[in-house]
Structure of protein O-GlcNAc transferase:
Amino acid sequence: MAYAYYLYDTSGRPRPAGLTAAPIMPMNTPTSLSTESVYKIQLMPLLSALRSIHPRHIPVLLLLACTHHTLGDYQTSIALSFEALSIDPECVEAMSNLGTTYKALGREDDAFEWWMKALRIRPTYWDAMDNILGKLFDVAQNTPDNNRRREAYSQALRVCESVIGQVVQDDGRLRIPVRTDEMHRLQRMFFTTATLRTLLPPNGILDAMQDYWRAIELVLRPPQPYGDDECYNMRDLLVATCVAGYIISSASDGPVPDAIVESLSLEGQPPFSELIHRPPLDLFRVVHASGERALNALLHIGGGVFPTLLLLPDQIMRLQMVLFPFSLGVAPAICTRNPHTGHLDLPHESMRQKTNLMTSTVLLTLAKRLQDESLANLRLPGLGGPVNVSVSLVLLLYYVAVSISPSPSTYNNLGILLCALSSSRDMPRTHGQNLLNGPALARFYYQAGLQLDPEHPHLLTNLGSLLKDQGRVEEAIELYMKAIRRKPDFDIALANLGNAVKDLGRSWDAIEYYRRAISLNPDLPEATCGLVNSLSAICDWRGRGSVPNEMGVDENGGIIMPSQTGTPGWITKMIEICERQIDAAYMQTVGIMQKSATKEEWLQVVENAQGRALREDERAHWLECLQRYYDGDDRMRNGINEVGFVIRFMDWAQPRLQRQWYIQAFGKIVSSDEPMFDTSPELERRFLRPVLPANMTSPPVPSVLPFHTFTYPLSLRAARLVAHRNALRISFMAHSQTWLPPHVYRPPPPPLNGKLNIGYVSNDVNDHPLSHLMQSVFELHDRNKFNVFLYTTSPWDGTEYRPRIASRVEYFRDVSTWSARDIIDDISRHNIHILINLGGYTKGARNDIFAARPCPVQMQCMGYAGTLSAGWCDYLLCCIISCPPDMSAAEFWRKNRGKDKEQTHVIFDFDADADPESRSNEWMYTEKFINIPHSFMATDHKQSFREDEGLTVQERAQVPPEELWRNEEKRRATMRRQIFPDLPQDVVIFANFSQVRVCAHSAIFAVWLRILTQVPRSILWLLRFPAAGEEHLLRTARDWAGEEVASRIRFTNVAKKDEHVYRGRVADLFLDTAECNAHTIAADVLWTGTPILTIPKHPHRMCSRVAASMAGATGFGDLMIVENVEEYEHRAVDFARSVKYVDEQDPTGTTIPRGRGELIKLRRNIFLNRDRAPLFDTMRWTRNVEKGYREAWKRWVEGTQYEMSDEWERSEGDVKDSSIIWIPDEDPPEIIIYD
């Protein structure tokens, strides 16, 4: 028979599923004969001979039946199976063979019946079970009838429940023996049952949990028989895994928490702290015996959920040995108990692998299901305690799954989960860092997975993304390329590669990767948004489409005239994606507020922040605002963002709690004559920091970046929410840090003799426009009134800017290698009163520092021309032109106070603090304004760019204006000939030196072309910024205006800073862009006297009003600022037509073209007044800003910063009338008009 089995099994043909025949021993096989020949020539004669000798030998009959089935002789196969049944009516193998053969004949019902008969006789006959389920699943998956599908699944579930009921008792013990090598089949039965329950309403997933638990519990317990004290369950596994994690990491993280040790120290047993050091530790037994004590201790530590454990891969691989030391890390259920020693004997390796794989599959499936957003915060049944769904619970499941069956995909999924975590812990320096957070830990898991499969595309891509986020873009690109070589259709890798290439400044090269990604997945947000950004960066507008009431571009590059509906294209698709991503967040973590705190508990925090009990009207107001989050209202329709509310509430409470602390420690003292100190530990315990709900997940952010909203035609609300959602993410990450103190950061003492400590935080203290503009500001601060701290968060680029600035600041800190904790500790230690953000949402900015709220007053200045829409930014330094007052939420509140109570409560849910999620499109800025006279933009040209004349301010003032102007015209003519030697003097030079991406709105380029058409003797001077934009702009110019106009567009390369500034005088008129103005470049050209023409187009977009702000600060803004595109076009043409030149010889005999006309007059006035203009008066700007700092500090101390506070209610005058800090300019500028 052994040889017969061998011939049957090794003939080269796979046996039909469900036939029962198996080889007993291996032999060498001849391969020259076909399967049919082997069966007919060798196997059949052998079996016939055996049958003649042993006619009632069932194994011979079964093998004969299988052989005839394989050869297609189904009738003979059936007859032989019935013959076997006549000998043994309970021969389940024969029944299963009959079912398989009837299925081959198309007699599905007969097949099903025979499989059911086999299963009734032997519930653990898995082949029959597989066939039955396969049959029912085929019916369910291939029918369009929902009722029939549901019935098929229901029947499959009943079969599973019947088998389980016959095999397993309610307490998990086995009713009948199950072979250890088949334990994984029984696990699969529970797993299948759970899967079926999830497919059947109404409570499928909840009903399925018990089956998932039981599938895992099967392998936790030792071989039967075992006592109640070894009847381990899923709760024991979770608790034991968590405790084991603490034990494993105790060498680096410190001892196991006392609460855990105490909960596991059982009466009559040595303390658990001693058991840890007495291996082997029977952890499961101790945990099981502790009942709910250990679970409750862990939930207390985790704030209501399991603590978040950050374990390294090598620590995870020790997990099974800690959990199952007596079976050397092997699941006890598949071991056998030695009758002589009582110890557990280990199973065969193949058996262990099958069981581990099945157990891991159950754990991973469970983990994946629990990550479903709809299950967030759900109380899990059957765990004997208040265990809610949480990320930390899912993490535990992954840890166990990886420890028993590591695989590349599991490492990858675990890495993805860890990347979303903001928790951190200390780790030994041997790993190269002090602080281990989620993303850093994810890298270890990605690398561990790549050791198993070095070319796993998902691992390569995700590791590449981590490296990209760390600034290691070149390495990331290598990994993305490797992933794509392995999987050319990997859309995410292609999109990520595009992003990385774009980050290197090669947007034009990124386009190919984005398009490939979109061809594979048209709905991939990152690919679409990346493509839009890259195409805009090089002005390739083909296929852009149009939004309502604005010009657009069709697929061929032709103009689409404005319409009320717009035309589909890539810009409209990007907008749709952004809106969809904004709406999706409303369904995140629904119900978290009810599960994390009662309304009374929220009100208690409010009272702590207010420093008193709420009045009845205040209580009613807050309850009405809170009620939205406790009702079952449509979250999406009403814009109800629960996660956003929780984070905003924390950001709202912290500075108010800091103020209450300050008042308790020092009183309402704006400054002091003597040093004051807060030494009361009681205040630390009193002003506790609000904490995030333990089971809250990170808020999602749109794929569109805040900076990109400057040039995209998004609605006011959408642009506000792009910024706000990023602010929420930053706040969440900051509030999640385990190193934060339990209390809010201690407020600084009153400034001694009124001398404020101000701290600037910047990532641009290098050769960067911010440093070009602000390098003297830090030095010009009045050192009698301010101590100046400057924290630079980026590495030095080797240029002269950083050393120069550092030499001017007494407290300069290069914190580019510091952790957030170290930076914040330094800020707190130096008692910074006001912290100024110079980065905003620019690349590399450290907003996480501000989100932790180390300082009472925080604001943003200069670096980012837009709202941060963040609770951790109190003020925005701006001016009346750049930020119209009615765009401020606080001013909007004053304007509408008492008008529409219901609507007001929706928009202003924290006193007078507005909810950015509200549907209102009437306001933009959550920050209060500090209104700087003239312009919010600081410049340094007066100090830094005087080489053109070689005169100091004092020397220049002594030179007659006519001489200054004659010399300037001479310099200008000379430089003009150097740059454009072929250009006649009477040709007007229009110019724009911005990156071509700010021309991303094609409408302004069309205006420029119309201007060129109307001024034949003119050119348009642009920069190759980047060079790839040149061909697209020229092609568009040819298509829209013809070859002649296109030939008058001149491109030059980007120049070094000094050359760039000085050559700006060559242009006659700088044509500004409308969606996002020139910023630093506007200051550069105005310094040389070149007029600009600008439109402050959008009231809500600061970036579209910057140039108007600067133009106004020259004293001649009325000539350079227009209201609309039509006026822009007419003004440019009129200016150009006014220009005339008359040659004149100077005393040396040099011919100088002397300009005449309105445009030349404007240039002359700008140039001659540049040392008087407020725009270039850095000292004036600094003194005015200092007034704003002092007033902001005063309002915080006195409490008038916060509307509806008692102090504000009692106040009068400007503070009550307006939230804006209006800075007076006591020294009016002396602008001289030269005819």
